[in-house]
Structure formats: C-alpha cells, structure tokens
Amino acid sequence: MGFFSWMTCNTDRSISNSFSSRGTFPVRMILPDDTYVDETEYEGYGEFGGLDFYAQVAKYSVPEQVTGDVDYNRGIGIDLCFDNEESIAVKMPKFIEIIDGEEILKWEEYLDPIICPDQGYYNDEPEEEFYD
Predict the structure, then answer these.
(1) Which residues touch 44 (CB under 8 Å, ≥6 apart)?
(2) Measured between alpha carbons, how far is 107 from 32 in angstroms, rounded to an integer?
C-alpha cells in the first residue's frame, strides 16, 4: 500500500507524512457535521485522529450503506471519490493546517481537499523550494 495525502484548505500545503524528510505538522480534519479531529503525526495512510478519511466520506455521503466495518466503509468512500458514476453528492472531510490564533471556519466554508500529487512524501527537497 502506498502513501496518500491532500493539500490543506487554508494554507495550500501538502500534508506530509511522518516518513517524509519534511516531517509532519498539526492538521485538523473537519467533518461535514462541523466536528473535527486533530492529527500531529500523520503516517500517510488516510487516518487522522483515529478516523479514516474515506470511511468518513462514506459515512456522510451514503449513511444508509455504512456498516460497522471500517475497511468496507473505506472501500465505499474510495469508490465515491474515484468511481462515482451515480453522481452522488460526495461529502469529503476538509483539512486545515492548525495555526495558533486562526479562526476555524465551518466545514461548508472550505473547499474540498485537493489530492497531493506527491502523496505527502518527500525525500530531500527543502520545503521552501517546493512552495516558491
């Protein structure tokens, strides 16, 4: 299984994982009901604060299909994000970089997250060069 990641909605920064030379930074995953979980050591596999991103997509997009099996729910969420031929309105969690003093907006006020083209993993490239 490879890594995957997204860009933060408020700083447009890749959520790098703990295996990356860049290390991690605090990220908040905001859910469609405006609850949230924080993650400080993202490992790169889609789990933030103990919640799987794609399982949450399933939970909020097609609650009638969700079971108690996280792996099953995750599969539904992946299908919704990448193979959604039924045109179901997909409700994705939103990611923000946690910045002291910054106002946290409601879920609906952030754009859907964009997938990080580098999957949150970087070798030796300095972050300053990547974001210039």
Answers:
(1) 3, 4, 5, 17, 18, 19, 20, 119, 120, 121
(2) 6
Residue-wise pLDDT tens for the chain (132 aa)?
477 899 999 999 989 888 877 888 999 999 999 999 999 999 988 999 999 999 999 999 999 999 999 999 999 999 998 887 667 789 999 999 999 888 888 999 999 998 887 665 555 555 555 454
**Spans of all domains in the chain:** 27-120
Strand order in the sheet with 36-39: 36-39, 27-30, 94-97
